Predict the structure of DinB-like domain-containing protein.
Amino acid sequence: MSGIDLDAFIHTHGQLLAEVRDLSEERAKWKPAPQIWSVQEVVSHLVDHSFVISFRIRDILAGTAARLPAFDQDAWVSGQRSNEGRLSDILDAFQAILEYNSLLIGRLSEEELEKSGINFKGEPVSVKAIVQGFIRHVHGHLGQIERIKQASALALGNA
């Protein structure tokens, strides 16, 4: 299975755990501004993104001709009131979806990884590109989490 680092995909959960380790509930839910996500909302967004890529991958493998769906990430996060839940539950959901998707991805042949669909922008995208993009997406949000943590430490002290 060349081209996909399944370990990097699975390791995104451990990276998230390391980033939020020892974060108090107050700091996990702290928002620098009403329209800016908290750490907990960022993690919730990653679960949402996991759902979306799960659907996209399965739709491609099924040979569906429909465009792959987009989603309004801000509306999803606010609509589900992500900051009212528990970070541990959100992390558990992320891990469960990640592990389930990794089982599927691990079974795919190189030919299946190269199968593609049309994204919401009208561009072809392969299963492989979706998985690689997800890993990059998580890494980008790890940086965002770090920035929010630093800002919350200044605003709240070491709460």
Q: What stands out?
A: The chain has one domain: 6-156. The longest strand covers residues 116-118. Strands lie at 116-118, 124-126.
